[in-house]
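Encode chain A's predicted structure.
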Amino acid sequence: AIHPRPGSFSDKWIEYCDQHCVPYKLVDCYSIDIIEQMQECEGLMWHWAHYDHKAQLFARQLAFSLEMMGKKVFPNSKTCWHYDDKVGQKYLLEAIGAPLVPSYVFYDRKQALGWARSTTYPKVFKLRGGAGSLNVKLVDNFSTAEKLIRKAFGSGFKAINRFHLFKDTLWHFKRDKSIQSFLKISKGIGWLILPTSTERFLPVEKCYVYFQDFIPNNDHDIRVIVIGKRAFAIKRTIRPDDFRASGSGKIVYNPDYIPKKCIQLAFETTQILKAQCIAYDFVFLQNDPMIIEISYCFAREGYLQCPGYWNENLEWKGGSFAPEVFMIEDFIQETSNPDA
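Encoded structure for chain A:
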């Protein structure tokens, strides 16, 4: 079963099934009878997104429920429960001893303020959700931290800040100077006037506050994506006059610039997590890779120019590829093996 969403991984999944005569059924995961729709299928593939407020309500629960039926799911529970949840990722990565950038979460205002008075700066403030460096702020001093903490335990933060989103759209236009990026500016102006359904329906983020240590002397990060026994990677340089690399679009594809330490660590962590697909963001502390955050999905456009991938033995395999094909090939193998 495949839930189709134009522009998502499902486009390639459907194309693969058609080309290779793989029997499949299109289903609607939002339908009241999705469990009934799944009765005759071995498994479900559904690329649901962090900005889909409806999927956020039930996608994880549906995955677990189908697994209880004996169905295979992509992404399965081990792969997706922590998706777009930096707080959940903190506990998970700490629990397995992964080298997470030191992270701090508080559910009490007084405790948070006490920590903020005694800690060192700068720190990085984040909301638990969001992608492309949205909802991320460098905090230079206690005064700024205090304001963020009081707001977190007061009115809270919108999950999507339309002004920051528009500012990000302008930056992308200055970088690309393309018709596509220009058209996005007009959309951005519309967002400033009328909030999107995502902004209106996603809950306000409040009653917690989350910080990470700022790791200095990094002019880039490394994004490594592991799908089964394959890993591919890019180097993302930071934006001008900024500390963020995610969402910059300033990408280096040359595998010579990817430290093997990152590839090995990504493979090892994915194996421990027993996940189908995980994207890792790494920065470096004294040449040691540190994980910033993880995700089961990614914007595929940023990886179309990757010249190849590594296998689990860290051997380089040159040539073009489609990540979605890796996903569905692994999934077909998984559904054919009931003990997988």
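The two ends are 18 Å apart (CA to CA).
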